[in-house]
Design brief:
Keywords: Lipoyl. By secondary structure, the chain is of the alpha+beta class. It has 5 helices and 9 strands, in the order E-E-E-H-E-E-E-E-E-H-H-E-H-H. The protein has a 6-stranded antiparallel beta sheet. The chain has a 3-stranded antiparallel beta sheet with strand order 4-6-7. It is globular, with a radius of gyration of 13 Å.
Length: 126
């Protein structure tokens, strides 16, 4: 069984989101996703300042097994990227919900975040 933290929100394509105290949202891929991918060897991140719309392909994760697109879970603006992943993408495998985050965004509408899957709902999707 994958690790699915209860305090996060999820989308069916295996991205997780965490609302931060400053109103930004941190986005990454789930433990289930990194497990399916295997050893991550490369990550292409969006650029700070990118305006993204829900379901946009915003990132690519490459592993020894496959390449997978990461989709925008909600609309907004990218305000920070995890530059550590550029030199050390395997952090995604060892700590997908912590140091392995992809980017932070300012959401266009916080209600979009609230409408995403809970941990229980995501687990049922699996």
């Amino acid at each position: 069984m994958s690790n699915i933290p209860a305090e996060l929100k999820y989308i069916a394509s295996h991205e997780w989101l965490r609302l931060e105290d400053d109103g930004t949202i941190t986005v990454g891929i789930t433990d289930h996703a990194q497990d399916l991918l295997g050893d991550v060897v490369f990550v292409e991140l969006p650029d700070v300042g990118d305006i993204i719309a829900v379901d946009d392909e915003i990132s690519v994760v490459e592993s020894v097994k496959a390449a997978s697109d990461v989709y925008a879970p909600i609309s907004g603006e990218v305000v920070e990227i995890n530059e550590a992943l550029e030199d050390d993408p395997e952090i995604i495998n060892s700590d997908p919900y912590g140091e392995g985050w992809f980017f932070r965004m300012k959401p266009d509408n916080i209600a979009d975040y609230e409408a995403l899957l809970t941990a229980d709902e995501y687990e049922n999707e699996l």
